[in-house]
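Whiteboard transcription, Tuesday session. T.W. wrote the structure tokens on the left side:
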């Protein structure tokens, strides 16, 4: 998914790869960062939802014509 010309999935994958390279990070810190990355992906995916591709009613579409 792209948001303001940023490929969210690509950035998340690069970050995960870099996390694996750091051997000095504690397991708790790694898991915390991975959890934050998961939330970012979930929220980014939610931005693309509308009444055409989800159960959102058409009246709640952000840019709908009235």
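and on the right, the sequence the group agreed on:
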């Amino acid at each position: 998914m792209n948001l303001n010309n940023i490929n969210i999935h690509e950035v998340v994958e690069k970050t995960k790869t870099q996390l694996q390279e750091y051997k000095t990070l504690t397991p708790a810190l790694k898991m915390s960062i991975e959890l934050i990355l998961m939330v970012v992906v979930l929220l980014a995916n939610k931005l693309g939802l509308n009444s055409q591709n989800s159960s959102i009613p058409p009246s709640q579409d952000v840019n709908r014509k009235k």
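Someone added at the bottom: The longest helix spans residues 27-47.
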